[in-house]
Amino acid sequence: MLAAAAPAAADDGDVLVQAGHEGRPGSCAPLHVKACNLGTGASGERERDWTPIVADQVARVLRAHGYTVIRRPADYAEHDTARAAVFLHFDGAVPCASGASVGFPETTSRAFVDAWEQRYRAWFPFRFVGENFTENEHRYYGFRKVDAPEKMLIEFGEMTCPEQFAWLQPRLRRLGNEVAAFLMEQLPR
Ligand SMILES: [Zn+2]
């Protein structure tokens, strides 16, 4: 191993995995986050409790396969470097107006986005509502906190749609397995 050249307030890994809204609202004030979006929820379940379950599973599977993982909550001071970064969310909307979607900056490759969409569309039995369909998805603040050739925000589905909620709730770890499988396929060791 070479001596680390990176500053202390940064991490370097194969994959950065962020759990959307995790740690809020507590993390907003100390990190000066003005738009403290707490995420959605339904039936007594909160998005910010679901996303860490998925993110932890992604990290567990990747680490078991020898990948280095930077696991981040919603708010943190560090600026990281990785080969790919994924930001995990569930959507909330006027009930059943939404579904699954993705957001990404211009730098993310078409192949990366297509590979996830193909994989998830084949499994998720509800609507795929689009790409970058809100400014929040297209210009997600998390994209600026990591240097990575591939960055993508994943909305797994809509918590506020009862049918989607019922499908998603028992599959949180399987969602993590799916994201991990996708990333390992995209980032051969
Ligand atoms: Zn969210």
Secondary-structure map:
Layout: E1 12-19, E2 41-42, E3 45-46, H1 47-64, E4 69-72, E5 80-91, E6 100-103, H2 110-121, E7 128-131, H3 135-138, E8 146-147, E9 150-158, H4 162-168, H5 172-186
Parallel strand pairs: 1-4, 1-5, 5-8, 5-9, 6-7
Antiparallel strand pairs: 2-3, 6-9
Helix pairs in contact: 1-5, 2-5
Zinc ion (ZN) binds at residues 20-21, 39, 47, 89.
Q: Low-confidence parts lasting 5 or more residues at pLDDT below 50? A: none
Ligand set: zinc ion
Shape: globular
Q: What is the H-and-E element order?
A: EEEHEEEHEHEEHH
Distance between the termini: 18 Å
- What is the share of helical residues? 25-40%
SS content category? alpha/beta
Can you summarize this structure?
With 189 residues, this protein is of the alpha/beta class. The chain contains 5 helices and 9 strands, in the order βββαβββαβαββαα. Strands 1, 4, 5, 6, 7, 8 and 9 form a 7-stranded mixed β-sheet that branches. Strands 2-3 form a two-stranded antiparallel sheet.
Structure write-up:
Helix 1 packs across helix 5 and helix 2 packs antiparallel against helix 5 (172-186). The strands form two sheets. Strands 1, 4, 5, 6, 7, 8 and 9 form a seven-stranded mixed sheet that branches. A two-stranded antiparallel ribbon has the order 2-3. It has helices at residues 47-64, 110-121, 135-138, 162-168, 172-186, and strands spanning 12-19, 41-42, 45-46, 69-72, 80-91, 100-103, 128-131, 146-147, 150-158. Helix content is 30%, strand content 25%. The chain is an alpha/beta fold and 189 residues long. The radius of gyration is 16 Å and the shape is globular. Bound molecules: zinc ion. Residues 20-21, 39, 47, 89 line the site of zinc ion.
